[in-house]
Amino acid sequence: MVTNLQSTTKLHNGVEMPWFGLGVFQVEDGQEVINSVKWAIKHGYKSIDTAAIYKNEAGVGQGIKESGVNREDLFITSKLWNGDQGYEETLKAFETTLDKLGTEYLDLYLIHWPVPELNKYKESWKAMEKLYKDGKIKAIGVSNFKEHHLDDLIKDSEIVPMVNQVEFHPHLTQKSLLAYCKEHNIQMEAWSPLKQGEVLADPTLTDIAKRHEKTTAQVILRWDLQHGVVTIPKSVKEHRIIENADVFDFELTDEEMSLIDQLNQDERSGPDPDEFNRR
């Protein structure tokens, strides 16, 4: 049951992952990201999600350090970039990430994109399995993997991914992928849950928000949680970081959940994982 900002979901290896966290995509390294991380932790967030390609891991690490909160009380996620895929490359990239974050371990490490053209995600996964067995990562997973990528990875792996972080919002509900992840005990996590603000003016959502005396963003984030999807909205403003997390004192009805589901357009704001090959 998701009752507060510290509520967790249990991954298939027993690790507890917060249902709600702060994403820092497109947050500038330095004071901007340091402040965002410190504000989030100050207001009760336990989960911070970054990535090598965001180029702000050092700032995230500094924000954590300045927060004064014990490292073991936080859940830190980062991601392996496309150009670092491969067995040895993954091991090296992981150490770079640890150095920048100033931590001895990660709670979750993800392969950022499948990059089918490279065909190296299985090699990378073998390296991540090693890091996991060595105790350097508490949980390993993937990002932007579709069902067929997951099928291909799982058939040659010792460990099933614990998490799949994907684009998920009312215009891209990924119903079949969500069902697949639930069936395989893979925790789905939403990036860009607000579709970079594009869905906030939708009349269905604004009507539901009025009923609950909430913002449209809060309604969407609540919808994520009620679907059993971990969510990590981004903000660089303290009042918005507080507001985003104020989603634990109301519940959407089955009818409201269905109305939001019906907004699906299978429309991405980011790239299609089958086609994205940037390194």
Automatic annotation (TrEMBL):
Substrate binds at residue 112. One of its GO terms (molecular function) is oxidoreductase activity, acting on the CH-OH group of donors, NAD or NADP as acceptor. CDD domains: AKR_AKR5G1-3 (cd19157). Residues 23-264 form the NADP-dependent oxidoreductase domain. Transmembrane segments: none annotated. Keywords: NADP, Oxidoreductase. The record marks 79 as: Lowers pKa of active site Tyr. The active site is at residue 54. InterPro entries: AKR (IPR020471), AKR5G (IPR044500), Aldo/ket_reductase_CS (IPR018170), NAD(P)_OxRdtase_dom_sf (IPR036812), NADP_OxRdtase_dom (IPR023210). Pfam families: Aldo_ket_red (PF00248). Belongs to the aldo/keto reductase family. This is Diketogulonate reductase-like aldo/keto reductase.
